[in-house]
Amino acid sequence: MIHIDGSFGEGGGQILRTAMVLAALTGKELQLTNIRAKRRKPGLMRQHLACVKAVAEITGGSISGAKLNSQELSFSPGQVRAGDYHFVVGSAGSAILIAQCAILCLLDAEGPSTVVIEGGTHAANAPIFDFFERVYLPCLKLMGSELWATLDRAGFYPAGGGRITLGIRPQDIWQSFELHSRGDLRHARLVTVSHGVDAQIPRDELRYCRDALAFDFPFTDQIKTVDAHGPGNVLFAELEYANITELFSVCGDFSLGRQTVGERVANMVNNYLGLDAPVWSYLADQLLLPMAIGAGGSFRTCKPSQHSKTNSEVIKAFLDVDITMTEEKSGQYRIEVRT
């Protein structure tokens, strides 16, 4: 049995998600304690509980401690099974984080699978669907994965109610992931996605973002309205290069003014463009697990976050892999995963 103390490192939900996926794929029993100990509300929230139940259902495994606010959990995995699955978060909690877990499990199944997940699709402190579709999934495809995703309905905080559909084919052969340069710029977009908000809000967010950009970059503006169960909006900047697409987003909130939203997106873009590395910290966090269960590889990024360092330690508790994070020059790092 693998014992993981959820209070170490960044002490958040990523420890739980990574441990559950690796337990499912290795068949090793898992005991988690101090789940999300460093969060304002520790223990299992609805999205974490939905993730736990999803992985247990996919493997036919057994779990104890799977209840709201629980800080301890035991998981005995079965075998990953292909099928048609439907998971519901029951709040605006992230459907995307559950999707990432389900995909990595079902790539190891014996046949194709379809997964429907209901919850938040554009939520704070999690990847939005646009990042998932245009940044994360293309990286998995470079590793050899065959999969697709559709946004059936957007889900904003606090109403939630979003819906995504995934298609996953089993993966027998993994490709090494190597990404060390961005390549030529193809497109740069500033995009707002909203439902049920004052039409001036997206326009203002775009204006404030442009005013705060430190680089003269050929961004095009796009204002999108989508179907959703409740009001909400998000602003994101998408930079599409020949070798990588990166995307930086901030979700609007009742306590977050439109100027703050615009300036926060611009600050992330400014930081990214001020560094020559192709992978930003959020994507770096999410690449480690598929690279570790796959064929490894390496990429250049900014200074590794505490999330990346913590994720690396959880991975190494299950797998015999070597993960190194080496500073190269001017704040750039090379992360290498050797399997």
Explain what the structure shows.
The protein is of the alpha/beta class and 339 residues long. 32% of the residues lie in helices and 29% in strands. α2 (46-59) packs parallel to α3 (95-106), α5 packs parallel to α6 and α7 packs parallel to α8 (306-318). It folds into 4 domains: 1-78; 80-172, RNA 3'-terminal phosphate cyclase domain (UDP-n-acetylglucosamine1-carboxyvinyl-transferase, Chain), CATH 3.65.10.20; 185-273, RNA 3'-terminal phosphate cyclase, insert domain (Dihydrodipicolinate Reductase, domain 2, 2-Layer Sandwich); 276-339. A hairpin with a 2-residue loop joins β15 (322-329) and β16. Strands 1-2-4-3 form a 4-stranded mixed beta sheet, covered by helices on one side. The chain has a 4-stranded mixed beta sheet with strand order 5-6-8-7, with helices on one face.
The profile of the biggest β sheet is: 4 strands, mixed
- The rounded Rg comes to 19 Å
* 3D shape: globular
Output the helix-strand order.
EHEHEEEHEHEEEEHEEEHHEHEE
According to CATH, what is the class of the largest domain? Alpha Beta
How many DSSP H or I helices? 8
Amino- and carboxy-terminal Cα gap:
22 Å
Stated plainly, the CATH topology of the largest domain is called UDP-n-acetylglucosamine1-carboxyvinyl-transferase, Chain
Structural class: alpha/beta
Q: What order do the strands of the largest sheet run in, or round the barrel if closed?
A: 1-2-4-3
Q: What is the average of the pLDDT values?
A: 96
Low-confidence stretches: none
What portion of residues belong to β-strands? 25-35%
* Share of helix, binned: 25-40%
CATH superfamily of the largest domain: RNA 3'-terminal phosphate cyclase domain
How many separate structural domains?
Answer: 4
Report the count of strand segments. Answer: 16
